[in-house]
Design brief:
Layout (H helix, E strand, L loop, with lengths): L8 H28 L3 H87 L1
């Protein structure tokens, strides 16, 4: 064998070149990212502040809409209650009269049926 030529020398050189190439590409990526984003913490804070502003705007709008819906529902409930009170005041006497009359008729009929049944039962016992 010639001087300086060993079996594993080529493999070691190739491995060293591969490692060097990988480290170089990582270093290049880091440098490009630093060039694009020189202050990543400040950029993140700005993005977060913008997001919070949007979120608070959406929340306040939703709160206002919910408040308006609640007011409308309460107004509708008041109107419905007033209308029901008016309707009840005007129609209650007629309903009450008809109910009383119907109850009296039913009571009388029950009593009559009961009396007839009792009379029949008495007549059967006498026989």
């Amino acid at each position: 064998m010639a001087k300086g030529t060993k079996k594993g020398a080529g493999a070691v050189d190739r491995a060293a070149e591969a490692v060097g190439h990988a480290l170089g590409s990582v270093a290049g990526t880091i440098e490009s990212l630093q060039a694009q984003h020189p202050h990543p913490v400040e950029e993140t804070r700005e993005a977060l502040a913008a997001g919070q502003e949007k979120l608070s705007a959406v929340a306040s709008k939703a709160r206002a809409q919910a408040g308006a819906l609640i007011k409308k529902a309460k107004a509708l409930a008041r109107r419905t209650k007033k209308a029901a009170m008016r309707a009840r005041r005007t129609s209650t006497p007629a309903k009450t009269r008809s109910r009383r009359t119907a109850r009296k008729v039913v009571r009388g009929a029950r009593k009559a049926v009961g009396r007839k049944t009792v009379r029949r039962a008495k007549g059967r016992l006498k026989r």
